[in-house]
Amino acid sequence: MAEQKTTHPQSGKTHKIVITIWALGPLLVFPFALYRAVKTRRIGRKVVLTTLIGYVLTGQGITLGYHRLATHESFKVPRLLKGLILGVGSAAAQGPVITWVDNHRRHHIHADQPGDPHSPHADFGEGWKESFKGFLHAHIFWLFEDPPKDFGRYTKRLREDKVVAWVDRTFVWWVGAGLALPALIAGWPGFIWGGVIRMLLVNHSTFAVNSICHMFGSRRFNTKDESRNNIFIAMLTGGEGNHNNHHANAKAAYHGLTWREYDLTGYVIRGLKAVGLATDVYEPTPEEIAARQAQLDRQAAREQAQAEAATELPSLTAVAPATNPERELVAAGVVPEAMSADD
């Protein structure tokens, strides 16, 4: 299949200026908008509704579309619905879908190790100052860095997908629609709250998964990385805060493993499946989840024993990564075996 035309992540001074405006603009607008709303004690019902509905929809566009559908291929939907979900995710303004997916797949393959684009731990030392620097890097400052030289290594099939490629190259139009629609519904306040501030809230909720959920929370699974389950972030992100669960079973469609682990996105997928719109949903059984937990415990124990004996052993030559990126994604558990195909 021929590769479709898509966007390519930008770099250089102009890119950093755009990212700075994108990052600081909403932050500067928010306190003034909040002050005005408190002072006047008036914020219209339409403004509230456009903000809340926009938050939920674009948030689901990221978690349901960008993350579980495009990145991990945890389920399938009809092409038209796929384009709509990814388009709504684009309106969150977190970048074109293929760039987002490439970064996130790297995060899983190199989780909290060199090569992870937004780890708060890799390349940072000990102590609270280094931890704070790592937190800021993982939350937002990693976005200012230039893209990797091998960008696109993990997104070949997505670039060949006509629907994904079209949404990717029309990214700016989706962002514009996400700002224009609340303005048409609720005027200038709708643009500010339902557009700019909604974008701010969705994005920093997503960013909190990268930062907070790799530093604060509980660990059900003994993964090699520092992923955590954080119920507060899960509530803000439709279930993405169940991050340790996700890192242990990256290709699973559902991140909440019990009723106590809130997972709105998982509920949406179940609903789509019930009406026949979601197929090939990857659902590990309780037995498979228990086996995965036992496997991770064994791996952790083995690595601990190796680490304790390291001073008595000669240095080992690092094993080269798989030459086929598709097989590399499967080996790392990022996508299901059935979703990947050899080049």
From TrEMBL:
GO CC list: membrane
Localization in the cell: Membrane
GO biological process, one term: fatty acid metabolic process
Family matches, as InterPro entries: Acyl-CoA_DS, FA_desaturase_dom
One Pfam family named in its UniProt record: FA_desaturase
Signal peptide: none
Main localization of the protein described in the UniProt heading: membrane
Uppermost EC category: oxidoreductase
Domain Fatty acid desaturase: from-to ranges: 48-257
EC number: 1.14.19.1
Keyword annotations: Fatty acid metabolism, Iron, Lipid metabolism, Membrane, Oxidoreductase, Transmembrane, Transmembrane helix
Family: Belongs to the fatty acid desaturase type 2 family.
UniProt name for this protein: Fatty acid desaturase Delta-9 fatty acid desaturase
Native source species: uncultured Thermomicrobiales bacterium
